[in-house]
Design a protein that fits this description.
Number of strands: 28
Structural class: mainly beta
Subcellular location: Membrane
Bound molecules: 2-acetamido-2-deoxy-beta-D-glucopyranose
Membrane topology: Single-pass type I membrane protein
Protein name: Malectin-like domain-containing protein
Keywords: ATP-binding, Glycoprotein, Kinase, Membrane, Nucleotide-binding, Serine/threonine-protein kinase, Signal, Transferase, Transmembrane, Transmembrane helix
Shape: elongated
Helix content: 10-25%
CATH architecture of the largest domain: Sandwich
CATH topology of the largest domain: Jelly Rolls
Number of helices: 6
Distance between the termini: 10 Å
GO molecular function: ATP binding; protein serine/threonine kinase activity; transmembrane receptor protein tyrosine kinase activity
Length: 459
Protein backbone atom coordinates (compact mmCIF):
# COMPACT_ATOMS: atom_id res chain seq x y z
CA UNK A 1 0.00 0.00 0.00
CA UNK A 2 2.59 2.52 1.02
CA UNK A 3 4.72 1.69 -2.00
CA UNK A 4 1.81 2.37 -4.32
CA UNK A 5 1.17 5.74 -2.77
CA UNK A 6 4.80 6.70 -3.18
CA UNK A 7 4.77 5.71 -6.82
CA UNK A 8 1.60 7.66 -7.45
CA UNK A 9 3.03 10.76 -5.85
CA UNK A 10 6.19 10.53 -7.91
CA UNK A 11 4.19 10.17 -11.11
CA UNK A 12 2.06 13.20 -10.32
CA UNK A 13 5.15 15.25 -9.55
CA UNK A 14 6.74 14.28 -12.84
CA UNK A 15 3.70 15.31 -14.85
CA UNK A 16 3.22 18.58 -13.00
CA UNK A 17 6.85 19.54 -13.39
CA UNK A 18 6.69 20.48 -17.08
CA UNK A 19 6.87 24.23 -16.76
CA UNK A 20 4.93 26.48 -19.12
CA UNK A 21 5.85 30.14 -18.66
CA UNK A 22 2.98 32.64 -18.99
CA UNK A 23 5.14 35.10 -20.86
CA UNK A 24 7.51 33.45 -23.26
CA UNK A 25 9.10 35.54 -25.99
CA UNK A 26 11.90 34.20 -28.17
CA UNK A 27 12.91 36.79 -30.73
CA UNK A 28 15.42 36.47 -33.52
CA UNK A 29 16.53 39.99 -34.42
CA UNK A 30 17.14 41.29 -37.90
CA UNK A 31 15.19 38.67 -39.79
CA UNK A 32 11.79 38.07 -41.35
CA UNK A 33 11.42 34.32 -40.91
CA UNK A 34 11.17 32.14 -37.78
CA UNK A 35 14.31 30.23 -36.80
CA UNK A 36 14.63 26.97 -34.89
CA UNK A 37 17.83 26.57 -32.89
CA UNK A 38 19.67 23.31 -32.08
CA UNK A 39 17.76 23.06 -28.76
CA UNK A 40 14.48 22.83 -30.74
CA UNK A 41 13.34 26.29 -29.68
CA UNK A 42 11.65 28.46 -32.27
CA UNK A 43 12.58 32.12 -32.32
CA UNK A 44 10.09 34.49 -33.99
CA UNK A 45 11.35 37.07 -36.46
CA UNK A 46 11.47 40.53 -34.89
CA UNK A 47 9.52 42.01 -37.81
CA UNK A 48 6.49 39.77 -37.59
CA UNK A 49 4.67 39.89 -34.27
CA UNK A 50 2.05 42.34 -33.03
CA UNK A 51 3.26 42.03 -29.42
CA UNK A 52 6.62 43.57 -29.90
CA UNK A 53 8.24 45.79 -32.45
CA UNK A 54 11.49 47.59 -32.79
CA UNK A 55 10.90 51.26 -32.15
CA UNK A 56 9.66 52.73 -35.43
CA UNK A 57 11.68 55.85 -34.69
CA UNK A 58 14.90 53.97 -34.76
CA UNK A 59 16.52 53.69 -38.14
CA UNK A 60 17.79 50.23 -37.50
CA UNK A 61 19.49 48.02 -40.01
CA UNK A 62 19.38 44.29 -40.38
CA UNK A 63 22.13 42.01 -41.59
CA UNK A 64 22.37 38.38 -42.41
CA UNK A 65 25.53 36.33 -42.43
CA UNK A 66 25.10 32.80 -43.80
CA UNK A 67 27.07 30.44 -41.58
CA UNK A 68 28.75 27.32 -42.88
CA UNK A 69 29.79 26.18 -39.40
CA UNK A 70 26.79 24.12 -38.34
CA UNK A 71 27.71 24.18 -34.65
CA UNK A 72 26.77 27.89 -34.61
CA UNK A 73 23.09 28.37 -33.77
CA UNK A 74 21.18 30.05 -36.62
CA UNK A 75 20.03 32.77 -34.20
CA UNK A 76 23.55 34.18 -34.51
CA UNK A 77 23.41 34.55 -38.28
CA UNK A 78 21.18 37.62 -38.25
CA UNK A 79 21.56 40.83 -36.33
CA UNK A 80 19.78 44.16 -35.86
CA UNK A 81 22.02 47.19 -35.67
CA UNK A 82 21.34 50.76 -34.64
CA UNK A 83 23.96 53.42 -35.34
CA UNK A 84 24.45 56.41 -33.02
CA UNK A 85 22.47 58.41 -31.95
CA UNK A 86 19.32 56.27 -32.16
CA UNK A 87 18.74 53.55 -29.60
CA UNK A 88 17.32 50.20 -30.60
CA UNK A 89 14.11 49.62 -28.66
CA UNK A 90 12.03 46.48 -28.17
CA UNK A 91 8.66 46.32 -26.37
CA UNK A 92 7.30 43.12 -24.84
CA UNK A 93 3.78 43.13 -23.42
CA UNK A 94 3.60 40.93 -20.33
CA UNK A 95 0.48 39.16 -19.07
CA UNK A 96 1.75 38.44 -15.60
CA UNK A 97 3.57 40.52 -12.98
CA UNK A 98 6.63 39.07 -11.26
CA UNK A 99 10.19 38.07 -12.06
CA UNK A 100 11.18 37.91 -15.73
CA UNK A 101 14.20 36.19 -17.11
CA UNK A 102 15.82 38.34 -19.78
CA UNK A 103 18.44 36.64 -21.91
CA UNK A 104 20.35 38.57 -24.58
CA UNK A 105 22.42 37.01 -27.33
CA UNK A 106 25.29 38.78 -29.07
CA UNK A 107 27.61 37.80 -31.89
CA UNK A 108 28.82 40.41 -34.32
CA UNK A 109 30.14 39.90 -37.80
CA UNK A 110 31.48 42.17 -40.53
CA UNK A 111 28.56 44.18 -41.84
CA UNK A 112 30.39 45.53 -44.86
CA UNK A 113 28.39 48.78 -44.82
CA UNK A 114 29.86 52.25 -44.52
CA UNK A 115 28.50 54.87 -42.19
CA UNK A 116 27.21 52.87 -39.24
CA UNK A 117 30.08 53.72 -36.97
CA UNK A 118 33.22 51.77 -36.56
CA UNK A 119 32.67 49.80 -33.40
CA UNK A 120 30.01 48.33 -31.14
CA UNK A 121 29.78 50.12 -27.82
CA UNK A 122 26.50 50.52 -26.02
CA UNK A 123 24.41 50.43 -22.86
CA UNK A 124 21.42 48.16 -22.31
CA UNK A 125 18.48 49.32 -20.22
CA UNK A 126 15.38 47.27 -19.35
CA UNK A 127 12.52 49.28 -17.81
CA UNK A 128 14.39 51.19 -15.08
CA UNK A 129 17.25 48.72 -14.65
CA UNK A 130 20.66 49.28 -16.24
CA UNK A 131 21.59 45.79 -17.42
CA UNK A 132 24.80 46.54 -19.27
CA UNK A 133 26.99 49.64 -19.19
CA UNK A 134 29.53 50.55 -21.87
CA UNK A 135 29.49 47.08 -23.38
CA UNK A 136 31.58 46.07 -26.36
CA UNK A 137 31.92 42.50 -27.53
CA UNK A 138 35.36 42.92 -29.05
CA UNK A 139 36.13 40.12 -31.46
CA UNK A 140 34.03 39.06 -34.39
CA UNK A 141 32.35 35.67 -34.07
CA UNK A 142 32.57 35.53 -30.27
CA UNK A 143 29.22 34.50 -28.80
CA UNK A 144 28.15 36.33 -25.63
CA UNK A 145 24.98 35.36 -23.78
CA UNK A 146 23.83 37.54 -20.88
CA UNK A 147 21.26 36.31 -18.39
CA UNK A 148 19.29 38.67 -16.14
CA UNK A 149 16.36 38.55 -13.72
CA UNK A 150 14.27 41.67 -13.22
CA UNK A 151 11.03 42.41 -11.39
CA UNK A 152 8.13 43.66 -13.45
CA UNK A 153 5.35 44.66 -11.11
CA UNK A 154 4.10 48.16 -11.87
CA UNK A 155 3.96 48.17 -15.67
CA UNK A 156 2.65 45.65 -18.16
CA UNK A 157 5.62 45.58 -20.47
CA UNK A 158 9.33 45.04 -20.62
CA UNK A 159 11.03 47.74 -22.68
CA UNK A 160 14.59 46.92 -23.63
CA UNK A 161 16.80 49.66 -25.07
CA UNK A 162 20.21 49.27 -26.63
CA UNK A 163 21.83 52.73 -26.52
CA UNK A 164 24.94 53.47 -28.60
CA UNK A 165 27.59 55.23 -26.56
CA UNK A 166 29.02 57.88 -28.83
CA UNK A 167 29.58 59.28 -32.29
CA UNK A 168 31.40 56.39 -33.88
CA UNK A 169 29.56 53.55 -32.20
CA UNK A 170 26.53 51.38 -32.80
CA UNK A 171 24.34 49.05 -30.74
CA UNK A 172 23.32 45.58 -31.88
CA UNK A 173 21.60 42.40 -30.76
CA UNK A 174 21.06 38.96 -32.30
CA UNK A 175 18.31 37.46 -30.18
CA UNK A 176 16.22 38.26 -27.11
CA UNK A 177 14.39 36.01 -24.66
CA UNK A 178 11.84 37.33 -22.14
CA UNK A 179 10.39 34.55 -20.01
CA UNK A 180 8.31 34.48 -16.80
CA UNK A 181 10.37 32.96 -14.02
CA UNK A 182 8.81 30.16 -11.99
CA UNK A 183 7.34 31.41 -8.73
CA UNK A 184 10.01 29.90 -6.52
CA UNK A 185 12.93 31.35 -8.46
CA UNK A 186 13.34 34.39 -6.21
CA UNK A 187 11.63 35.13 -2.93
CA UNK A 188 10.01 38.51 -2.59
CA UNK A 189 11.61 39.41 0.72
CA UNK A 190 14.51 41.77 0.52
CA UNK A 191 17.88 40.22 1.08
CA UNK A 192 19.29 43.23 2.77
CA UNK A 193 17.64 44.75 5.78
CA UNK A 194 18.30 48.28 4.59
CA UNK A 195 17.27 47.84 0.98
CA UNK A 196 13.56 47.25 0.80
CA UNK A 197 13.16 46.94 -2.90
CA UNK A 198 13.18 44.33 -5.57
CA UNK A 199 16.60 43.84 -7.02
CA UNK A 200 17.83 43.15 -10.52
CA UNK A 201 20.28 40.28 -11.03
CA UNK A 202 22.87 39.31 -13.58
CA UNK A 203 24.05 35.73 -13.74
CA UNK A 204 27.83 35.53 -13.52
CA UNK A 205 28.53 31.85 -12.84
CA UNK A 206 26.29 28.82 -13.17
CA UNK A 207 28.21 25.69 -12.44
CA UNK A 208 27.46 21.97 -12.50
CA UNK A 209 29.83 20.74 -9.78
CA UNK A 210 31.68 17.54 -10.66
CA UNK A 211 29.65 17.09 -13.84
CA UNK A 212 29.59 17.87 -17.53
CA UNK A 213 28.24 20.95 -19.28
CA UNK A 214 24.43 21.01 -19.22
CA UNK A 215 22.99 22.60 -22.34
CA UNK A 216 19.65 24.44 -22.69
CA UNK A 217 18.20 21.29 -24.26
CA UNK A 218 18.55 19.46 -20.94
CA UNK A 219 17.54 22.30 -18.63
CA UNK A 220 14.01 23.12 -17.52
CA UNK A 221 14.58 26.85 -18.14
CA UNK A 222 16.92 26.60 -21.15
CA UNK A 223 19.99 27.56 -19.13
CA UNK A 224 23.60 26.53 -19.61
CA UNK A 225 25.54 25.06 -16.65
CA UNK A 226 29.33 24.88 -17.04
CA UNK A 227 31.67 22.32 -15.50
CA UNK A 228 33.46 23.57 -12.35
CA UNK A 229 37.02 22.58 -13.31
CA UNK A 230 38.28 26.13 -13.85
CA UNK A 231 37.11 27.26 -10.40
CA UNK A 232 37.79 24.27 -8.20
CA UNK A 233 40.81 23.99 -5.92
CA UNK A 234 41.26 20.56 -4.48
CA UNK A 235 42.87 19.77 -1.17
CA UNK A 236 43.22 16.18 -2.41
CA UNK A 237 40.48 14.42 -0.42
CA UNK A 238 37.63 15.03 -2.80
CA UNK A 239 36.07 12.84 -5.40
CA UNK A 240 33.53 13.31 -8.21
CA UNK A 241 30.41 11.22 -8.06
CA UNK A 242 27.54 10.52 -10.41
CA UNK A 243 24.07 9.20 -9.59
CA UNK A 244 21.85 7.24 -11.99
CA UNK A 245 18.72 7.07 -9.85
CA UNK A 246 15.79 9.45 -9.71
CA UNK A 247 16.16 12.86 -8.05
CA UNK A 248 13.39 13.17 -5.45
CA UNK A 249 11.90 16.62 -5.91
CA UNK A 250 9.55 17.35 -2.99
CA UNK A 251 6.43 19.47 -3.03
CA UNK A 252 7.47 22.71 -1.36
CA UNK A 253 11.14 21.91 -1.81
CA UNK A 254 13.48 23.10 -4.55
CA UNK A 255 11.80 22.53 -7.89
CA UNK A 256 13.19 21.21 -11.14
CA UNK A 257 12.97 24.76 -12.56
CA UNK A 258 15.28 26.10 -9.87
CA UNK A 259 17.83 23.45 -10.81
CA UNK A 260 17.46 20.39 -13.07
CA UNK A 261 18.19 16.68 -12.49
CA UNK A 262 21.26 16.91 -14.70
CA UNK A 263 22.91 19.19 -12.16
CA UNK A 264 21.76 17.37 -9.02
CA UNK A 265 22.90 13.97 -10.31
CA UNK A 266 26.58 14.84 -10.16
CA UNK A 267 28.64 16.28 -7.32
CA UNK A 268 31.95 16.47 -5.57
CA UNK A 269 32.28 15.00 -2.09
CA UNK A 270 34.82 15.00 0.72
CA UNK A 271 35.05 11.51 2.06
CA UNK A 272 36.66 10.16 5.23
CA UNK A 273 38.10 6.79 4.38
CA UNK A 274 40.45 5.90 7.21
CA UNK A 275 39.45 5.79 10.83
CA UNK A 276 39.31 9.55 11.19
CA UNK A 277 37.57 12.56 9.71
CA UNK A 278 39.66 14.13 6.97
CA UNK A 279 40.87 17.67 7.65
CA UNK A 280 40.29 19.18 4.26
CA UNK A 281 37.95 21.57 2.48
CA UNK A 282 36.73 21.60 -1.08
CA UNK A 283 37.19 25.15 -2.38
CA UNK A 284 35.79 27.12 -5.31
CA UNK A 285 37.02 30.60 -6.20
CA UNK A 286 35.29 33.00 -8.61
CA UNK A 287 36.57 36.42 -9.64
CA UNK A 288 33.97 39.19 -9.23
CA UNK A 289 33.83 42.96 -9.56
CA UNK A 290 34.25 45.01 -6.37
CA UNK A 291 31.51 47.34 -5.22
CA UNK A 292 28.52 45.11 -5.88
CA UNK A 293 26.60 42.64 -3.77
CA UNK A 294 26.29 39.03 -4.85
CA UNK A 295 23.72 36.33 -4.38
CA UNK A 296 25.42 32.96 -3.94
CA UNK A 297 23.07 30.01 -4.38
CA UNK A 298 24.39 26.60 -3.41
CA UNK A 299 22.60 23.47 -4.61
CA UNK A 300 22.83 20.33 -2.50
CA UNK A 301 21.44 16.85 -3.03
CA UNK A 302 22.67 13.88 -1.03
CA UNK A 303 23.38 11.36 -3.78
CA UNK A 304 26.37 9.99 -1.86
CA UNK A 305 25.32 8.73 1.58
CA UNK A 306 24.23 5.14 2.08
CA UNK A 307 21.60 6.17 4.63
CA UNK A 308 20.09 9.32 6.09
CA UNK A 309 21.57 11.11 9.10
CA UNK A 310 25.17 10.28 8.21
CA UNK A 311 26.44 13.50 6.66
CA UNK A 312 27.21 16.73 8.52
CA UNK A 313 29.38 19.50 7.16
CA UNK A 314 30.27 23.17 7.31
CA UNK A 315 29.78 25.74 4.57
CA UNK A 316 31.91 28.88 4.36
CA UNK A 317 31.45 31.85 2.05
CA UNK A 318 34.49 34.12 1.81
CA UNK A 319 35.85 32.55 4.98
CA UNK A 320 32.68 33.12 7.04
CA UNK A 321 31.00 30.08 8.51
CA UNK A 322 27.51 30.41 6.98
CA UNK A 323 26.20 26.95 7.84
CA UNK A 324 27.51 24.91 10.74
CA UNK A 325 26.75 21.19 10.80
CA UNK A 326 24.47 21.30 7.79
CA UNK A 327 22.38 18.13 7.90
CA UNK A 328 20.87 17.55 4.46
CA UNK A 329 18.67 14.71 5.75
CA UNK A 330 16.93 17.06 8.13
CA UNK A 331 16.24 19.80 5.58
CA UNK A 332 14.92 17.30 3.03
CA UNK A 333 12.50 15.51 5.39
CA UNK A 334 14.86 12.53 5.73
CA UNK A 335 14.93 11.62 2.08
CA UNK A 336 18.10 10.83 0.16
CA UNK A 337 18.68 12.24 -3.34
CA UNK A 338 16.33 15.12 -2.58
CA UNK A 339 17.40 18.65 -3.53
CA UNK A 340 17.91 21.58 -1.21
CA UNK A 341 19.36 24.98 -1.98
CA UNK A 342 20.60 27.79 0.21
CA UNK A 343 21.00 31.45 -0.71
CA UNK A 344 23.58 33.79 0.76
CA UNK A 345 24.09 37.45 0.08
CA UNK A 346 27.63 38.76 0.14
CA UNK A 347 27.87 42.50 0.42
CA UNK A 348 30.60 43.42 -2.01
CA UNK A 349 31.11 47.06 -1.19
CA UNK A 350 34.16 46.66 0.93
CA UNK A 351 34.96 43.19 -0.19
CA UNK A 352 37.76 41.59 -2.05
CA UNK A 353 37.32 40.78 -5.70
CA UNK A 354 36.56 37.06 -5.37
CA UNK A 355 33.78 34.86 -4.09
CA UNK A 356 35.17 31.85 -2.32
CA UNK A 357 33.10 28.88 -1.21
CA UNK A 358 34.55 26.22 1.13
CA UNK A 359 32.86 22.98 2.08
CA UNK A 360 34.39 20.68 4.66
CA UNK A 361 33.89 18.49 7.69
CA UNK A 362 32.25 19.83 10.86
CA UNK A 363 32.48 18.76 14.48
CA UNK A 364 29.64 16.26 13.90
CA UNK A 365 31.23 14.67 10.82
CA UNK A 366 31.69 10.91 11.01
CA UNK A 367 34.69 8.86 9.99
CA UNK A 368 33.82 6.26 7.30
CA UNK A 369 31.21 8.61 5.85
CA UNK A 370 30.80 11.35 3.30
CA UNK A 371 31.63 14.63 5.05
CA UNK A 372 30.65 17.27 2.56
CA UNK A 373 28.97 17.61 -0.81
CA UNK A 374 28.16 20.25 -3.43
CA UNK A 375 26.14 19.64 -6.61
CA UNK A 376 25.71 23.05 -8.16
CA UNK A 377 26.50 26.69 -7.63
CA UNK A 378 25.24 29.99 -8.99
CA UNK A 379 26.59 33.48 -8.46
CA UNK A 380 24.37 36.43 -9.36
CA UNK A 381 25.51 40.05 -9.31
CA UNK A 382 22.89 42.25 -7.63
CA UNK A 383 22.05 45.73 -8.84
CA UNK A 384 23.22 48.74 -6.83
CA UNK A 385 21.09 51.54 -5.40
CA UNK A 386 20.84 53.10 -8.88
CA UNK A 387 19.29 49.86 -10.14
CA UNK A 388 22.40 49.37 -12.21
CA UNK A 389 24.42 46.23 -12.84
CA UNK A 390 27.34 48.22 -14.21
CA UNK A 391 28.48 51.64 -13.06
CA UNK A 392 26.91 54.16 -10.74
CA UNK A 393 24.52 55.52 -13.27
CA UNK A 394 20.80 55.04 -13.63
CA UNK A 395 18.64 54.24 -16.61
CA UNK A 396 17.28 57.80 -16.87
CA UNK A 397 20.74 59.30 -17.23
CA UNK A 398 21.68 56.93 -20.02
CA UNK A 399 18.43 57.50 -21.86
CA UNK A 400 18.65 61.27 -21.58
CA UNK A 401 22.12 61.53 -23.05
CA UNK A 402 20.56 61.53 -26.48
CA UNK A 403 16.86 61.27 -26.95
CA UNK A 404 14.08 63.10 -28.65
CA UNK A 405 10.36 62.35 -29.06
CA UNK A 406 7.43 62.56 -26.65
CA UNK A 407 7.26 58.96 -25.58
CA UNK A 408 10.85 58.76 -24.56
CA UNK A 409 10.88 62.01 -22.64
CA UNK A 410 7.79 61.02 -20.67
CA UNK A 411 9.56 57.87 -19.64
CA UNK A 412 12.62 59.86 -18.82
CA UNK A 413 10.99 62.27 -16.39
CA UNK A 414 9.73 59.29 -14.43
CA UNK A 415 13.05 57.49 -14.35
CA UNK A 416 14.90 60.69 -13.57
CA UNK A 417 12.85 61.21 -10.43
CA UNK A 418 13.51 57.67 -9.31
CA UNK A 419 17.14 58.19 -10.10
CA UNK A 420 17.49 61.28 -7.92
CA UNK A 421 15.99 59.38 -5.03
CA UNK A 422 18.41 56.57 -5.61
CA UNK A 423 21.40 58.87 -5.50
CA UNK A 424 20.30 60.35 -2.18
CA UNK A 425 19.70 56.87 -0.88
CA UNK A 426 23.10 55.67 -1.96
CA UNK A 427 24.82 58.47 -0.09
CA UNK A 428 22.85 57.84 3.07
CA UNK A 429 23.46 54.16 2.89
CA UNK A 430 27.19 54.63 2.51
CA UNK A 431 27.25 56.72 5.67
CA UNK A 432 25.14 54.38 7.69
CA UNK A 433 27.22 51.48 6.62
CA UNK A 434 30.64 52.72 7.50
CA UNK A 435 30.84 50.89 10.82
CA UNK A 436 29.08 47.75 9.77
CA UNK A 437 31.59 44.99 9.35
CA UNK A 438 29.33 42.07 8.53
CA UNK A 439 30.25 40.93 5.06
CA UNK A 440 27.56 38.35 4.46
CA UNK A 441 24.07 37.52 5.50
CA UNK A 442 22.21 34.28 5.39
CA UNK A 443 18.89 34.54 3.71
CA UNK A 444 16.58 34.30 6.67
CA UNK A 445 13.66 32.24 5.54
CA UNK A 446 15.23 29.34 3.72
CA UNK A 447 14.80 26.51 6.16
CA UNK A 448 11.66 27.75 7.86
CA UNK A 449 10.05 28.38 4.55
CA UNK A 450 10.61 24.93 3.15
CA UNK A 451 9.53 23.12 6.27
CA UNK A 452 6.22 24.97 6.43
CA UNK A 453 4.98 23.31 3.29
CA UNK A 454 2.97 20.10 3.35
CA UNK A 455 5.14 17.05 3.44
CA UNK A 456 4.65 14.70 0.56
CA UNK A 457 7.19 12.12 1.47
CA UNK A 458 6.31 10.79 4.89
CA UNK A 459 4.38 7.88 3.39
C1 LIG B 1 32.75 26.07 -35.41
O1 LIG B 1 32.46 26.80 -34.23
C2 LIG B 1 32.99 26.25 -33.05
C3 LIG B 1 32.62 27.13 -31.86
O2 LIG B 1 31.28 27.37 -31.81
C4 LIG B 1 34.49 26.16 -33.13
O3 LIG B 1 34.99 25.52 -31.96
C5 LIG B 1 34.91 25.38 -34.37
O4 LIG B 1 36.31 25.43 -34.50
C6 LIG B 1 34.25 25.97 -35.61
N1 LIG B 1 34.56 25.16 -36.77
C7 LIG B 1 35.06 25.67 -37.89
C8 LIG B 1 35.30 24.70 -38.99
O5 LIG B 1 35.31 26.85 -38.01
C1 LIG C 1 33.94 52.64 -21.99
O1 LIG C 1 34.89 51.60 -22.00
C2 LIG C 1 36.12 51.94 -22.63
C3 LIG C 1 36.98 50.72 -22.61
O2 LIG C 1 36.31 49.64 -23.16
C4 LIG C 1 36.77 53.10 -21.91
O3 LIG C 1 37.94 53.47 -22.58
C5 LIG C 1 35.81 54.27 -21.86
O4 LIG C 1 36.35 55.31 -21.07
C6 LIG C 1 34.47 53.85 -21.26
N1 LIG C 1 33.54 54.97 -21.36
C7 LIG C 1 32.70 55.28 -20.38
C8 LIG C 1 31.78 56.43 -20.66
O5 LIG C 1 32.66 54.69 -19.32
C1 LIG D 1 21.09 15.58 -22.41
O1 LIG D 1 21.40 14.73 -21.32
C2 LIG D 1 21.63 13.38 -21.66
C3 LIG D 1 21.79 12.57 -20.40
O2 LIG D 1 22.32 13.32 -19.35
C4 LIG D 1 22.86 13.30 -22.56
O3 LIG D 1 23.11 11.96 -22.93
C5 LIG D 1 22.62 14.13 -23.82
O4 LIG D 1 23.78 14.17 -24.61
C6 LIG D 1 22.24 15.58 -23.43
N1 LIG D 1 21.85 16.30 -24.63
C7 LIG D 1 22.32 17.49 -24.94
C8 LIG D 1 21.85 18.08 -26.22
O5 LIG D 1 23.10 18.09 -24.23
C1 LIG E 1 37.94 25.32 5.70
O1 LIG E 1 37.80 26.68 5.30
C2 LIG E 1 37.47 27.57 6.36
C3 LIG E 1 37.26 28.93 5.78
O2 LIG E 1 38.27 29.33 4.91
C4 LIG E 1 38.56 27.54 7.42
O3 LIG E 1 38.21 28.38 8.49
C5 LIG E 1 38.74 26.11 7.93
O4 LIG E 1 39.80 26.04 8.84
C6 LIG E 1 39.02 25.17 6.76
N1 LIG E 1 39.05 23.80 7.26
C7 LIG E 1 40.02 22.95 6.97
C8 LIG E 1 39.91 21.58 7.54
O5 LIG E 1 40.96 23.27 6.24
C1 LIG F 1 21.66 63.89 -30.07
O1 LIG F 1 21.22 63.40 -31.32
C2 LIG F 1 21.06 64.42 -32.31
C3 LIG F 1 20.50 63.77 -33.56
O2 LIG F 1 19.29 63.16 -33.26
C4 LIG F 1 22.39 65.09 -32.56
O3 LIG F 1 22.23 66.13 -33.52
C5 LIG F 1 22.92 65.66 -31.27
O4 LIG F 1 24.20 66.20 -31.47
C6 LIG F 1 22.98 64.61 -30.17
N1 LIG F 1 23.31 65.20 -28.91
C7 LIG F 1 24.24 64.75 -28.09
C8 LIG F 1 24.40 65.45 -26.78
O5 LIG F 1 24.95 63.78 -28.35
Amino acid sequence: MSIQITLLLTTILTVVSAYTPTDHYLINCGTTTPTTDPNHRTFTADTSSPNFKPNPLSKSLQFHNPETNLTISPIYTSVRVSPYPKPLVYFFKVKEMGVKLVRLHFRKFEFGVKGIGCHDQFHVVANDYVLMYNFSIGDFSTVVVKDFMIWVDDVDEVVIKFIPLGKSSYAFVNAIEVISAPEDMLEEWSYNKDIRRKRGYEMLYRVNVGGVKVTPFNDSLWRTWSPDEGFFKSGGSDRKIHFDGRIQYRVGGASREVCPDNVYNSARVVESLGGEVVKDNMTWVFPVEKGFSYLVRLHFCDIASISVGMMFFNVYVNGNLVYENLDLSKVTDYLLASPFYADFVVDGEKFVDVMRVDIGPSSLSKAHAVDGILNGLEIWKMDNAMKSLGGEVCAGQLESSNQSGGQVSRLFSLTAAVCLLAIAFLVMRRKAEAKDSVGWSRVPSEIDLKSNYPKSTAV
